[in-house]
Amino acid sequence: MLTHCWQETIRLCPVIGRGGDAGYKVRGRMSDAPSYSPPVKIGEVMCGATVSRVVSSLHPDFAEGDWVLAYSGWQDYDIASGDDVINLGKDPQHPSWSLGILGMPGFAAYMGLLDIGQPKAGETLVVAAATGPVGATVGQIGKIKGCRVVGVAGGKEKCRHAVEVLGFDLCLDHHAEDFAEQLAIACPQGIDIYFENVGGKVFDAVLPLLNTQARIPLCGLVSGYNATELPDGPDRIPLLMATLLKKRIRLQGFIISQDYGHRINEFQQEMGKWVKQEMIHYREQLTEGLEQAPQTFIGMLEGRNFGKVVVQVGPSR
Amino acid sequence: MLTHCWQETIRLCPVIGRGGDAGYKVRGRMSDAPSYSPPVKIGEVMCGATVSRVVSSLHPDFAEGDWVLAYSGWQDYDIASGDDVINLGKDPQHPSWSLGILGMPGFAAYMGLLDIGQPKAGETLVVAAATGPVGATVGQIGKIKGCRVVGVAGGKEKCRHAVEVLGFDLCLDHHAEDFAEQLAIACPQGIDIYFENVGGKVFDAVLPLLNTQARIPLCGLVSGYNATELPDGPDRIPLLMATLLKKRIRLQGFIISQDYGHRINEFQQEMGKWVKQEMIHYREQLTEGLEQAPQTFIGMLEGRNFGKVVVQVGPSR
Predict the structure, then answer these.
(1) pLDDT at A159 over 90
(2) CB B306 to CB A161 under 8 A?
């Protein structure tokens, strides 16, 4: 596998679409800020996925004329060992599509929407960067799944494309001054899924419209990639979001009775066992008398309690 | 089921522990700000879960002397229809524990940690409000699952309790001026799970220490409940967190290649089918010539592209 092959690079070099892994990776590697990929050094070839044709090969799995998907970067030719190079065959229908709809952007759209977004028929799905390779795919999968799809894009032409060609129900121009109001009107039932690709003011407009149990696959934050650093100002939402994205973190609000009511038997069995076996200790802070309830409550909010606060009103036996 | 029974209320009235559903509900219902529960009206009985004893009953499922778990609020007696009243029997071992370890706080700890937190042996779990009914349970379940558990509590006495009685590996006092530094030192391997119960400065100290693929079950934000309103200031993290909690939202960062690499075959089959059947449209913006790559890339970051940006370097066939 270490035999070297020549490959003609870059027939087609993606300069990445909005959002998606690649966008973050490529822009992120242009700075030496901590990220999940090391920075590109000065003098090195700029990184990027490529679709290329093999010029000559000593590798048994690749022959002259084969189309390949690789990560050869911004250059005309490359030499590859064959590792991490995917053979697309002699005659793929659209070679460059392996950089988009059939590659990482399409895959991100598919998994992010279906696995994290969990779309259900009749739900409202909002998609930023609606005509980018990720957003366009997200919206169209959303339509296949029966969602009402509201796109957000920059400019009338893109918005028209999203509706007329991609089949979105609606697409709003985020350049409009009253964009947030337009979005609220466009989503009278609120937003069930927001596929986050851009961050910034689109997220701000989405936030108050999110429905209970909404899902936000956080795939990219392209609006912030060009900032020279994360804002060190008082608003730390950009910092939080960048952290969640880079570190692939799940942050999930839950309300026990509403989210897990159906699993209470499992809990009671397991916890009953642990408590009985003294694997779990439990501490109460008993206050006597209903008239103590308000002060006790205030004390609890201020952290002056120690253990579960319980007010004893009558005799306990 | 609508026959009324008398019940003696409130043997034990919980005035809620830190965090958990009840805390948010009770404090939240003291204001008329929009929330998932309606506000308590002036003159109405303040809401709260209760453990009570039945004084007399016309209901077939409840007899005099039965202990019951109900939601009767801050008062001495209540009349209940029997709906939403759980019979604990004649002689439960610790009647009031149904308000804590064996009730909603214990259940929130159990589900939040196990289902959202997904603890694995050897991971670092940080638990705020470490001696509260939720936090104490979270930390102890964490130990059962083999985690290194770092508690956070207010005051030395609580911290000592967390370590000596509950068996946490460590517990830090959030009143310390150098709390954030202490936390960093206490978590040399970073934080894999942060069970969020308090918000505010504990979250601020946790954020930079979170590991890749960390999980944050967001169960409560008690540090903010007493604020008269959500800060309208420039920092909107409190607003975001309150929204995620109230609406039980899942916000999840992901990086497609790293999170879903193992499911690429499924994607390629499904997407290949959709593209072939023209259920999904795809648009590329081709730029010719490698020398156009930088300008094209900049244009994409600024939103001047339309569709997946691809730079064509050589002939495409």
Answers:
(1) yes
(2) yes
The 3-class secondary structure across A248-269, one letter per residue, is CCEEEECCHHHHHHHHHHHHHH
Indicate the helix (H) or strand (E) that contains B10. Answer: strand B5-14
Fold annotation for B5-98: Quinone Oxidoreductase; Chain A, domain 1 (3.90.180)
Q: A104-246 belongs to which homologous superfamily? A: NAD(P)-binding Rossmann-like Domain (3.40.50.720)
CA distance A93 to B14: 67
Q: Are A135 and A115 in contact (CB under 8 A)?
A: no
Reported ipTM: 0.74
The alpha carbon of residue B165 is apart from the nearest alpha carbon of chain A, in Å, by: 7
Q: pLDDT band at residue A5, thresholds of 50, 70 and 90?
A: very low
User: Is residue A146 classed as helix, strand or coil in its secondary structure?
Assistant: coil
Q: How far is A39 from chain B (nearest CA, A)?
A: 17
CB-CB under 8 Å, B10 with A309: no
- Tokens read off for B219: 């169960």
* Closest chain A residue by Cα to residue B311: A13
CA–CA gap between residue A68 and residue A88 (Å, rounded) = 5
Q: A192 pLDDT band (50/70/90 cuts)?
A: very high
Give me the pLDDT at residue B175, please: 93
Q: Does domain A5-99 have CATH number 3.90.180.10?
A: yes
Closest CA to B301 of A219, A26, A146, A201: A26
A contacts of B161 (beta carbons < 8 Å): 283, 306
CB contact under 8 A, B76 and A313: yes
Residue A76 has its nearest CB partner, among B76, B236, B290, at B290
Residue in A99, A61, A96, A56 with CA at minimum distance from that of residue A79: A56
CA distance B59 to chain A (A): 23
Cα atoms found within 13 Å of the Cα of residue A77, Cβ hemisphere only: 8
Residues of chain A with Cβ-Cβ distance to B104 below 8 Å are: 256-257
Q: Which residues of A touch B101 (CB under 8 A)?
A: 271, 275, 280, 282, 308
Chain A, window 203-262: residues with a beta carbon less than 8 angstroms from a chain B beta carbon: 207-208, 210-219, 222, 225-226, 233-237, 239-241, 243-260
- Reported as a pLDDT band with limits 50, 70 and 90, residue A164 is very high
Instruction: Compute the distance between CA of residue B224 and CA of residue B128 in angstroms, rounded to an integer.
Output: 14
- Per domain, the residue ranges of chain A are 5-99, 104-246, 258-312
Q: How confident is the model at residue A149 (pLDDT cuts 50, 70, 90)?
A: very high
Nearest beta carbon to residue B236 from set A212, A213, A235: A235
Nearest to A254 among B23, B116, B308 (CB): B116
Nearest to B312 among A12, A212, A217 (CB): A12
Instruction: Kindly provide the b/e burial profile for residues B138-166, where b requires at least 16 CB atoms within 10 angstroms of the residue's own CB.
Output: bbbbbbebebbbbbbbbeeebbebbbeeb
